[in-house]
């Protein structure tokens, strides 16, 4: 695909022009935590035409992790005396036994790492430690876990396991569309997940479910251009799959990474916050790698545990409500004292609203007075 | 979590290498992009190269990120590299 440089003013003009010509208001959804933050940080919502709404979908890995899986992670840390390695995003997510941060303050060995390989190497350097890696994230984050497990098997490590909560984007989008209470006119598809899975996997969303899909990068100009294009599609009654991030996304994705993912993992039913259990929507280790499965090593059993009382994170990440429709939002649930994961995660919709959106609303109300 | 940033591959030895991440020299695993060579721009995520990029795209991305950083100066934003 040919690329053409577009500037943000041109993209905004096209968005505004297309919006004026719409026959009815439209709603689009992004399914990527990085898109959520990028849109709020660059002020995109404040520049949106009134008849175009951009919702945040189930794209933040921390936010979509079920309460039961979060409890499992904290349980293995507190009860099994392991060294838990995690990406920083998970540290403050509250579970029934507190958060990982609290567990660490009470003496648990919890380490924030940058890459899955850091966890594997820690196990290699410290055979006296039982190292568990909290493997969360979508397809972008899964290949590093697969490499770490492959290397651990090659090295014959006996003290390294992973607690797998990797998820797949397409089943989540499909589940939303199968639901009766979420209605969107199209998706801004995640750029870096698409680097791995490619653009063609969205074809059934377009062909079967008749929803527009536009793959977008993460800079303000990328997102504005993608919104302009998807709005133009709506204006023209077109339903197309378009890749506006061809610099990094190819039709078939990164085949080396995909082969590796499915060599180590196989699709499995997975619980999602707000979407319950979805068939084949996550990954589990294949039988030949089950020595590295923390659930088997420590006899962990994932349970369905309820979300914190009053918390509407599940509704927020499925577009059923906006953060300020949750009674806890900004009152008892704040970034300093988060109740639900959407307020904890740096990519969570509630935290984005709290930091970037709400002050503007307050300001508007004040001016109106 | 799925954020990836452009970096320039400056050393390579087998599956491992070192990348210039906007002035920071960081280790990078390149086994997901086996065709990457020293001097290439790569997209990096969680210590791994996940794609090759052309130089123009990489430079444009950094220009936008720098611009955003400047605008956010003083903001209490957290590092969202994961």
Question: Explain this structure to me?
Answer:
The complex is a heterodimer of chains A (369) and B (82). In chain A, 41% of the residues lie in helices and 17% in strands. With 369 residues, chain A is an alpha/beta fold. Chain A has a domain of 149 residues: Rossmann fold. The C terminus of chain A is likely disordered. Chain B is globular, with a radius of gyration of 13 Å. Chain B has a single domain, classed as SH3 type barrels. Classes of the chains: A alpha/beta (369), B alpha+beta (82). Chains A and B meet through helix 2, helix 7, helix 8, helix 10 and helix 13 of A and strand 5 and helix 1 of B.
Helix and strand topology:
The complex is a heterodimer of chains A (369) and B (82).
Chain A: H1 8-20, E1 26-30, H2 33-41, H3 44-47, E2 52-56, H4 61-64, H5 67-79, E3 83-86, H6 100-105, E4 109-112, H7 116-125, E5 131-137, H8 142-155, E6 160-166, H9 169-178, E7 186-190, H10 191-197, H11 203-207, E8 212-216, H12 220-235, E9 241-243, H13 255-264, E10 265-272, E11 276-285, H14 294-297, H15 313-316, H16 341-344, H17 349-368
Parallel strand pairs in A: 1-2, 1-7, 3-4, 3-5, 5-6, 7-8, 8-9
Antiparallel strand pairs in A: 10-11
Helix pairs in contact in A: 1-12, 2-17, 7-8, 8-13
Chain B: E1 5-13, E2 16-21, E3 24-29, E4 41-45, E5 48-53, H1 55-71
Antiparallel strand pairs in B: 1-2, 1-4, 2-3, 4-5
CATH class of the domain at 65-168 and 253-297 in chain A: Alpha Beta
Query: Which CATH class of chain B?
Result: Mainly Beta
Level of helix content of chain B?
Answer: 10-25%
Low-confidence spans of chain B: 74-82
Shape of chain A: globular
Sketch the topology of chain A as an H/E string, one letter per element: HEHHEHHEHEHEHEHEHHEHEHEEHHHH
Q: What structural category do the secondary elements of chain B indicate?
A: alpha+beta
Under CATH, the homologous superfamily of the domain at 65-168 and 253-297 in chain A reads: HypD, alpha/beta domain 2
